[in-house]
Design goal:
Layout lengths: L13 H5 L3 E5 L8 H11 L5 E5 L5 E2 L2 E2 L13 E4 L6 H11 L3 E4 L9 H17 L2 E3 L6 E3 L4 E2 L8 E8 L2 H14 L4 E5 L9 H10 L5 E6 L5 H12 L4 E5 L13 H5 L3 H10 L3 E2 L6 H11 L6 E6 L2 H13 L3 E2 L4 H10 L10 E2 L10 H10 L6 E6 L4 H4 L5 H17 L4 E5 L7 H8 L4 E2 L2 H23 L10 H12 L6 H10 L8 E3 L5 H8 L4 E7 L11 E5 L2 H18 L5 E8 L5 E10 L3 E8 L4 H4 L2 E5 L4 H10 L3 H5 L9 H17 L3 E11 L8 E3 L2 E5 L4
Parallel strand pairs: 1-2, 1-5, 5-6, 6-7, 10-11, 10-12, 12-13, 13-14, 15-16, 15-17, 15-18, 18-19, 19-20
Antiparallel strand pairs: 3-4, 8-9, 8-11, 21-24, 22-23, 22-24, 25-26, 25-28, 26-27, 28-29, 28-30
Length: 725
């Protein structure tokens, strides 16, 4: 396993905290109902090799270990303090830890910022003392931590097996659920666990950095309710996922990022989908259901990646072959097209009634010779069209289902599968009906590092995660650097004026900024008086025109009656001007009206939206999706953290569920996706060049086929400017 050192600027401070030379248990107790007792049990019975310092002014010894009246009275200098006392005592105890030279503290107590203003003040006092004395805080309001490779078990959980899955969870019960599931699995073990609690000091990015650097961790697994600094987490995730897998289960929605509907982009940002999209952009494997967390973590930890998403299925039952094919398609995987040579080799192994196309149904060929399944796996694994091999059926249970004499043959088949797993870089994933009872052939496979699943759905989710990770790593290796965009004097002047006047860019100003940077905008004329309409009519001739109100106070023009369409001739323009100005005044009598924009009606196309918002959790985020007035109804959108690569832009366009709309329906031509990709790239660079752009909304953008000279037309543009304090 490669190290992430060099990918991140510094080493995690958690190495000292998670592998302490000594531990002070502040609030240690002889009462079995107290956390201070549980922690002592976990350390003493767990075989912790460092010094243990129980701190309790009323006790001489706890569990046979000498106790001390205070932190200051401790004779040695532990690296870590576990604080089990009430919240009100914590700030002074943190200061005492710092004076004693203790580098880290785990604060179990609740009663801090999660409870209100008084708790927040107490938390601030705790952090002020921590910073003043150089103490790093895990928590408060945390379930604790363990590091099984150093026999540090502050939770006193029993039957934990040391292994290579690192856990960070904001839910103590979720950790307990994973621990019990691992016990049932029998082969899954953990490296370390941390409960971030309120993330007052150390946040998810710090814990992920530690797991990325930890030599005992092959896969980092996180249960997340909310990020404190999502932008920093994404930066760390990109560095870690380049070296080892990261699995995240995100509960709920990220409400911090939501805003009132100041724009379509603002209304859609901050959603659960946005968080998931940004995590996947950073290479994180996101699971949708809690029962997928451990199976996916185990599969990624053991198998790491697949070259792609082409899967060969070998089944000993037609029904389960069909189920597997359905689930693979739903997960975005494809059935590999087996080569003629592969099919010919399979036919020599199988009975005439068997299917040699994918999915391969052996149709009874393995009933008397279960090791035949291993031979079939070897044949398809050698096919260049195959990225992963998926065995589906009853392997491991033939001797139970048919005859005990088949056990030897199954064991030989298992050994052949183990040899194949060592000889190939392609993942071998196995689903067996008999997985819950762990017969000897399956135990042999599991002990050798092959994940065995009792659910086709779990196995397919693992295959999907392996394929996604492989493609992500390949994209990263092949992604060339892009040149940044330089802000122009005209663009800087537009934004500076708007900031000084404490307003956003007007539509014509927003389009002018886009045009400054080679983003095509339609020809248009701003009109501030009805007297100018004659010149406008002559300029555009007989082309049907659109007219829209210009006002810093009216965001959604249609709602205000501020749009008139299909206008031809000066008379129509004059009537429309009068109507729009009257409607706008009635809609908002206090609105400042700066005339209207007149522009030719655009050709009919596919309406899409491009938006950007500086999210308070994740920073600048780009959105792409189907546009128009129903964007917030359909919510068929994709999000990426900025800046984006070309691969990011391509994946945004291809992520849209209504791909048939983009690819042409009922004889309509497909839109020019490459033009949209280039537009997204330019918007990304524009936002990077102008930090004072707080939000951008292009809706709708008409997407056109390749025959169109530009591939798109920006119908409406909105740029919200960061206000000067």
């Amino acid at each position: 396993m490669q190290s992430i050192e060099g990918h991140l600027p510094s080493r995690s401070p958690l190495h000292v905290v998670l592998a302490p030379e000594g531990i002070a248990v502040v609030g240690a107790s002889s009462d079995p109902t107290k956390r201070g007792y549980k922690a002592m049990v976990g350390l003493v019975k767990g075989g912790y090799r460092g010094d243990i310092y129980p701190v309790n002014p009323k006790a001489k010894a706890i569990l046979g270990v000498n106790a001390w009246s205070s932190i200051s009275a401790i004779p040695g200098t532990p690296s870590l303090a576990l604080i089990c006392t009430p919240a009100a005592t914590v700030p002074d105890l943190i200061a005492e830890c710092g004076r004693r030279g203790i580098k880290g503290a785990v604060v179990l107590a609740s009663g801090f910022s999660e409870t209100g203003e008084a708790g927040a003040e107490l938390e601030a006092q705790m952090m002020a003392n921590a910073r003043a004395h150089g103490v790093r805080i895990i928590g408060p309001n945390t379930s604790g931590l363990f590091n099984l490779h150093h026999n540090v078990n502050l939770l006193a959980l029993e039957n934990l097996k040391p292994g290579d899955i690192g856990i960070v969870s904001q839910s103590g019960n979720m950790l307990l659920s994973l621990a019990l599931e691992a016990q049932h699995n029998g082969q899954v073990g953990f490296s370390s666990y941390m409960g971030p609690g309120n993330q007052t000091d150390l946040g998810f990015n710090d814990y992920l950095r530690y797991l990325g650097e930890d030599e005992h961790t092959r896969v980092a697994t996180l249960y997340v309710e909310g990020f404190r600094d999502g932008r920093k987490f994404l930066d760390v995730a990109r560095a870690v996922t380049a070296m080892k897998p990261v699995v995240v289960y995100k509960s709920g929605s990220t409400e911090q990022g939501q805003k009132a509907a100041s724009s379509h982009t603002g209304a859609l940002a901050g959603s659960y989908q946005m968080t998931v999209d940004l995590l996947r952009q950073a290479g994180v494997s996101v699971v949708q259901y809690s029962d997928e967390i451990l199976p996916v973590a185990e599969g990624l930890g053991r198998l790491q990646k697949a070259a792609g998403k082409r899967v060969a299925v070998i089944a000993d039952g037609g029904g389960q072959a069909t189920i597997a094919a359905d689930r693979l398609a739903e997960a975005g995987l494809t059935l590999a097209a087996l080569s003629p040579d592969t099919q010919a080799k399979l036919k020599t192994l199988l009975l005439p009634q068997a299917s040699s196309v994918n999915p391969v149904d052996v149709a009874g060929s393995s009933d008397a010779n279960p090791s035949l399944l291993a031979q079939c796996m070897e044949v398809v694994a050698a096919d260049a069209n195959v990225d992963s091999v998926f065995l589906v059926g009853m392997f491991g249970g033939y001797s139970l289902r048919f005859a005990e004499s088949l056990l030897g043959d199954e064991m030989r088949g298992a050994e052949s599968m183990v040899e194949l797993a060592h000889a190939t870089q392609k993942p071998l994933v196995i689903y067996s009906l008999y997985a819950p009872i762990k017969p000897p052939p399956l135990r042999r496979l599991h002990e050798a590092g092959l994940p065995i699943y009792a659910s086709i759905e779990h196995a397919v989710r693992v295959l999907a995660a392996l394929g996604e990770r492989g493609e992500y790593l390949a994209r990263g290796a092949a992604q060339p650097a892009t040149r940044p965009m330089q802000a122009s004097p005209n663009g800087q002047a537009l934004l500076a004026t708007a900031r000084q006047q404490k307003r956003d860019l007007l539509e014509f100003e927003a389009k002018a900024l886009l045009a400054e940077h080679c983003i095509h905008v339609p020809d248009e004329r701003r009109v501030q008086s009805a007297n100018e309409l004659a010149d406008v009519a002559r300029h555009f001739g007989h082309h049907p025109l659109a007219m829209k109100v210009v006002s810093k106070d009216i965001l959604h023009k249609s709602d205000a009656g501020g749009v008139q369409l299909n206008l031809v001739g000066e008379a129509a323009l004059r009537d429309a001007y009068k109507t729009i100005m009257g409607n706008a005044q009635r809609y908002d009598p206090s609105a400042q009206l700066d005339g209207v924009l007149v522009t030719p009606m655009v050709e009919k196309g596919v309406e899409v939206i491009i938006g950007m918002l500086r999210d308070p959790v994740f920073g600048p985020v780009l959105m792409f999706g189907l546009g128009g007035v129903f964007v917030e109804v359909w919510e068929d959108v994709a999000f990426r953290s900025l800046p984006i690569t070309q691969a990011d832009a391509e994946s945004m366009v291809n992520q849209i569920k209504a791909q048939k709309v983009l690819e042409g329906v009922r004889g309509a031509p497909a839109v020019n996706k490459q033009a949209l990709v280039l537009l997204l790239m330019r918007i990304s660079k524009l936002v990077d060049a102008y930090p004072s752009i707080r939000e951008l909304d292009l809706n709708p953008v008409m997407a056109y086929p390749e025959s169109h000279p530009h591939g798109y037309a920006i119908v409406d543009a909105r740029i919200i400017v960061e206000r000067e304090e």
